[in-house]
Design brief:
single chain; 126 residues; alpha/beta; five-stranded parallel β-sheet; 41% helix
C-alpha cells in the first residue's frame, strides 16, 4: 500500500485529505506543521506528500527545499496544495521541487487526477 503524508496546519483540510486518500487506497499519516513533517520523513519517507504552503514553524516551501536536500528526499512525489493562485508563486513551488500543484479548495477528483498523472494511482476501469 502506498503511503501519503498530509502536511497542513488545518485539521479540517487534513481530515478531508485523509478521507479522499484512504478512499483511493493510500495509507495516510498527518503532520500539522513543517517541523513535524520533516521529523516524519526522517523516520519513514512516504511515497507522496500533500503539502500546504502557509504553516507555522516552517512553511511548505522550506519543507520542500529541506526535503529535496535530504537523504532519500528525491523519492517522494510532492503535491503542493495551497490557496496561492499567482503563477509566479506556483512556479516558485515547482522550481523548488514540487511535482504537482493543487489550488484550494479541492475535491477527490482533482486529487485523483494529480495522483494518476504522477503514476501513483491506477486508472480504474468503468
Amino acid at each position: 500500500m502506498k503511503t501519503c503524508l498530509v502536511v497542513d496546519d488545518s485539521p479540517v483540510i487534513r481530515k478531508v485529505s485523509r478521507r479522499i486518500l484512504e478512499d483511493l487506497g493510500f495509507e495516510v499519516a498527518e503532520a500539522a506543521n513543517g517541523v513535524a513533517a520533516m521529523a516524519w520523513c526522517d523516520a519513514m519517507m512516504p511515497d507522496v506528500i500533500l503539502l500546504d504552503w502557509r504553516m507555522p514553524e516552517m512553511d511548505g516551501l522550506e519543507v520542500l527545499r529541506r526535503l529535496r536536500a535530504s537523504r532519500g528526499g528525491d523519492v517522494p512525489q510532492v503535491i503542493f496544495c495551497s490557496g496561492e493562485t499567482e503563477i509566479e508563486r506556483i512556479r516558485e513551488a515547482l522550481d523548488a521541487g514540487a511535482d504537482e500543484y493543487i489550488m484550494k479548495p479541492f475535491d477527490g477528483a482533482i486529487v485523483a487526477g494529480k495522483l494518476q498523472s504522477l503514476g501513483l494511482l491506477q486508472v480504474r476501469a468503468a
